[in-house]
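Worked example 2:
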Amino acid sequence: MQLGPQVGSARGYPNDARQIGRSAYLTDTGYSIGGAGSAWVGITFNDYLSFNLAGYAGALVGAQHRTTYQAFAFRVEAFPAYVAGGPFRDLGVSLESGLGVVSSTLRADDAIRPIDSGSASRFALGAFYEGFRVWKLATGPFVEADMMWSASAVRPTVWLGWRMNFANKP
């Protein structure tokens, strides 16, 4: 599980084929701040590689817009420096790929949806450190670059925060 603040933006059109690609309907939220969370469950085959199914949700809030998004993904985590031992064994990288929705971008003054993705692709690449351990719980900071896109919307973000990983191994 990981939680943290995000910085990003959303740019796109309503999910209407008559409006996609027409500059009159294009909305760009500019940089916004918000937060996100992700949780996953999976299997670890050895000390340096795991495969997981993940769920992800977040929101960005700007001066004039609020954007929400959700996704499901396949997540791979690797510890490429595990064999070096010491503190390096707790450095990891993650990769997520899946499907989601930039479910809505609402203007602050009304309920108009100027950006709506329908189904969207998602790709995220991150790095983390799990150097703090208590029993079977490993925890530490992370940073992740995240992108969702569809024919009608693009939503890039960067987030950082804290993660917790429970491993049921001996």
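Residues 2-166 form a domain with the Porin fold (CATH 2.40.160). The two ends are 21 Å apart (CA to CA).
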